[in-house]
Amino acid sequence: MKLSREQLATAVRALCADFGHDYWQRADEARAYPHEFVEALTDAGHLACLIPEEYGGMGLGLREACVILEEINRSGGNAAACHAQMYTMGTLLRHGSADQKERYLPGIAAGELRLQAFAVTEPDAGSDTTRIRTVAERRGDHYVVSGQKVFISRVLQSDLMVLLARTTPIEELEKRTAGLSVFLVDLRDAGEAVRVNPIDTMINHESCEVFFDGMEVPAANRIGEEGRGFRYIMSGMNAERILLASESIGDGLYFVDRASDYASARKVFGREIGANQGVQFPIADAYMDIRAAAAVRDEAAREYDGGETRGEGPNMAKYLASRAAWKAANVAMDTFGGWGMATEYGIERKFREARLYMVAPVANNLVLSHVATHVLGMPRSF
Questions:
Q1: Could you tell me the sign of the dihedral formed by the alpha carbons of 317, 320, 323, 327, in that order?
Q2: C or N terminus of the chain, fewer CB within 10 Å?
Q3: Buried b (16+ CB within 10 A) or exposed e, 42-58
Q4: Superfamily of domain 231-375
Q5: Which residues of the chain have pLDDT under 50?
Q6: How many helices (H) and strands (E) does the chain have?
Q7: What pLDDT score does 91 carry?
C-alpha cells in the first residue's frame, strides 16, 4: 500500500528523530559523509521513492520526493547528502532504455548501488552547459571520455554517475544545444581513468573536481540518442530544482520553528522577546515567504509529475525557496543573537547550508534571466 504524503512525512520525521543535532554537528565538524543516515533512509525505502515498483522502488512521484527532502531539512538534517539519487531519476527514468533500467534500478532501490553523482558543470563553462569541453569519442562499441568536471558532489560515495559530454564539436553544429550526449557511468569499472580531487567548502558537501583521462564507457550505457543529451539532462535539472526548492523550504521552516520557539521562551527585561514586534514580525514575514515558495514548488511538482518539460516552474520554485530560506536564516540568527553563532544550537550550521542554494545548482541571477527571456519574452541580456 502506497503511503499518503501525510503518512510519508510522519515516517520521515520519525526516522530523522534518530539523527538529531549532535549527529549532524559531528558530521559537519569532521567533514564526514553521514553514511548511517543515508543507510537508514535507504533501508526505509525513501531513497527509492521515484523508482517504479517493478524494480523494487516505491513507485511514487516527485511530489512525494519533495515531502521527504523537505522533512529531512526541517528536522535539522541535510538532504544534500543523498538527494541526487532522486533527481537523477529525471534523466534515467524518462529517457533510459528498458535494459538500463533492468540492469541498474533494482540494485539502486535495494541499496546495493548508489547513484549520487550528476556530472555536468565544468570550470570554463559554469552555467553555460552548451560550452562544456568534456568529450566522448565513439570507438566501436564504446566511448572514450576525456575532460574535467567541477563541483560534482558525492563522487566518492557513488557507484554510478550520470555524465554529460560532447559527442560532436560545437563548431560543426548550427544549434549549440545539439551534439551533447548523456551516459550512465559505472565508476567501479573506471579505474585510474577517473581522478577525483575533493574541494574544501564552507559546508560539509562532498564536492569534488573530477578528471577523465581516456575513460571507456560502453555504448550501451548511453542514455537515449547520441547528440540529444541536452534535452535529456534538462529532465534531471528540472527535477533537481524542484527537489532542492523543497530542501530550502525545509530549511526555512527549520529556522522559523527554532526562532519562534526561542523567542517564546527567551526572556529579557522581564518579558519574552517574542512579545516584541521587532522580533515577531520578521519571523512571521519569513514564514509567509516560505509558504508562498512552497505553493510555487507544489505547482511545479504537480506539473512535472504530469509530464511538463518547461523550466519555468522549477526555476521559479528554486529561486523563491532559496531566497525565503536565506531570509529565514538571517531572521533566526537575529532572534538567537550571539547564541546563533554558537554551534550548540545548530543555527550557524544550517545558516551556512542555506546559503548554498542562492548560487547552486543555478545562480539566482540566471533564473531571473530565464524568466525575463523565456517567460516574459524580453531580449537576452547576455
A1: negative
A2: N
A3: bebbbbbbbbbeebbbb
A4: Butyryl-CoA Dehydrogenase, subunit A, domain 3 (1.20.140.10)
A5: none
A6: 12, 10
A7: 96
Joined together, the cell numbers standing for residue 105 give: 534500478
Residue 253 confidence (pLDDT)? 99
- Contacts by residues 217-221 (CB-CB < 8 Å, ≥ 24 positions apart): 217/136, 217/142, 217/143, 217/144, 217/145, 217/163, 217/183, 217/185, 218/141, 218/142, 218/143, 219/138, 219/141, 219/142, 219/143, 220/99, 220/100, 220/141, 221/100, 221/183, 221/184, 221/185, 221/186
Q: Please report the pLDDT score of residue 3 as a whole number.
A: 84
- Considering the entire predicted model, what is its pTM? 0.97
Quote the CA–CA distance of 222 and 356 in Å, as a whole number: 31
Q: How much is the pLDDT for 2? A: 80
Give which of 238, 205, 299 is closest to 89, Cα–Cα.
Answer: 238
What does the pLDDT read at residue 223?
A: 98
Task: Give the integer Cα–Cα distance in Å for 50 and 61.
Answer: 6
Burial of 381 per CB tally in 10 Å (0-12, 13-18, 19+): exposed
For residue 184, the surrounding DSSP H or E stretch is: strand 180-186
- Catalytic-role residue among 122, 240, 303, 353: 240
Distance CA(265)–CA(227), nearest Å, equals 59
How distant is the alpha carbon of residue 101 from its chain centre? 22
In sequence order, the 6+-apart residues with CB closer than 8 A to the CB of 232 are 91, 94, 95, 182, 223, 224
Q: What is the domain partition of the chain in residue ranges?
A: 5-110, 115-228, 231-375
Is it true that domain 115-228 has CATH number 2.40.110.10? Answer: yes
- Residue 19: which residues within 8 A CB-CB, separation 6 or more? 34, 36, 37, 40, 75, 77
Is 53 one of the catalytic residues? no
- Residue 1 pLDDT: 65
Q: Which triple of cell numbers denotes residue 195?
A: 581522478
Give the architecture-level CATH label for domain 5-110.
Orthogonal Bundle (1.10)
The number of C-alpha atoms within 13 Å of 299 and in the hemisphere containing its C-beta is: 13
